[in-house]
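quick one: flavin-adenine dinucleotide bound model?
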Amino acid sequence: MLSNRSEMVVAWDFETDPEFEEQLAWMRDFIDRELIPLEPIFDELPRDEWKIVQHHLQDEVKARGLWGAFLDPELGGIGFGQLKLALMSEVIGRCMMSMTVFGVQAPDSGNMELLAHGATDEQKDRWLWPNLRGDISSAFALTEPFFAGADPTVIGTTAAKDGDEWVIEGRKWFITNASVADIVLVFAETNPEGRPHRHASVFVVPTGTPGMEIVRDIATMGHPGASYGRQGNHAEIVFRDCRVPADHLIGQPGDGFVLAQQRLGGGRIHHAMRWLGQAQRSLDIMCERAVSRHSHGRPLAEHQMVQDYIALSHMEIQSARLLTFQTAWQVDKYGAAAVRADLGMVKAHVSKVVLAVLDRTIQVCGALGYSSDLPVESWYRTTRFGPIGDGPDEVHKSVLARTLLKRYTPVEGWPTEHLPSRRPSGEAKWRELRTLAGIT
Ligand SMILES: Cc1cc2nc3c(=O)[nH]c(=O)nc-3n(C[C@H](O)[C@H](O)[C@H](O)COP(=O)(O)OP(=O)(O)OC[C@H]3O[C@@H](n4cnc5c(N)ncnc54)[C@H](O)[C@@H]3O)c2cc1C
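yep, here:
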């Protein structure tokens, strides 16, 4: 097994209490011991047997009080807040399958945040708590084939009230886990006359509801040979006269966009937290290769271009880590809504960093890096969704730029104050300061 050198090179100031540090140490050891050894054979494991083993491992995590830690206590979870979650998620991110073992996997985590914010007590009993316990799983259906997912104010799926039921019509695609989930949270237009951000609503549609058809699981970079009904696949779904009772609406008609923001905002930084762990483990692999392999009479580690890859990767990971942790701290202090643009910034930045580090690791590992003998190529393919998913990075950068630009107003006569013509006033100021300082 490739050793983990992360602890040796990382020193941060986001220290927590000793009990939590002990929990983190346990997590590292648990993942190294129980999960990482399975990586090379994971795709071949019989799924039904893996489910049983996974339950057993999940029970160990629950017994340690570490299960489903993304949901903050005030929302009914056992969460520790976003900063501690960031520390935990980095450990979890080192191994893909640890997400489900620790109960923090997307899209369930985001869906639970949505339900925690918007569902009634009765709805929480039916869907949130079973989802949090791991008794049921969920998917979230927003993206559609014929409308840009980047702009969720324009969608084709509709829901119309008919007596005590809502009737859903439309088509969704790339809906992660829909073909294995028990419920799908469907984003549909209910108030076409409303303002763009008030025209849609979210409904819980149990899979198997008549009129909801899973057309296919779409083959993707992450899962090239999409086999129907595997965890992590991305489904295309058609809704034709699909009827759900009135109490399957979450919140009020028109609340859909606000609720979706609740889940996507948190989800964006949660992805980033886990990518840090993946990037760090990838750098560990790159460094081990560099010190273990020789070319042209010396270790790869002594070639300056390889040193550049290593130094650059470390610099990028450290800055991404600080950005992520600082934003997590801000969420704890001010709430997610106050730092919406920052959450998008974190997603856009860290997704680029992790892909760059993975790419360099593949390069330094040569043919082996390109092969499936190492996990890096699979991580690269899976993580390539990062700059696209949960809103493309371009959109997050636009939101960030617009947020920054709000601080600026046009300056009359600009750029006069920057020009040499302002030299006389600079000279006057200098004379004044010299006099004040007693220079004659
Ligand atoms: C692996 C994976 C899993 C996913 N899981 C889910 C899921 O569970 N549920 C769900 O609802 N969706 C899911 N999606 C869909 C995802 O959220 C969308 O792909 C994403 O929001 C982009 O929408 P789109 O694909 O329609 O691309 P478009 O909206 O068509 O955008 C395509 C490209 O156009 C450019 N672009 C778009 N708008 C702008 C802009 N304003 N400024 C500059 N450039 C722009 C960007 O380069 C963007 O990548 C998943 C996608 C992937 C790849």
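The pocket of flavin-adenine dinucleotide is lined by residues 107, 139-143, 148-150, 174-176, 220, 222, 234, 385, 388-392, 394-395, 398 (CB under 6 Å).
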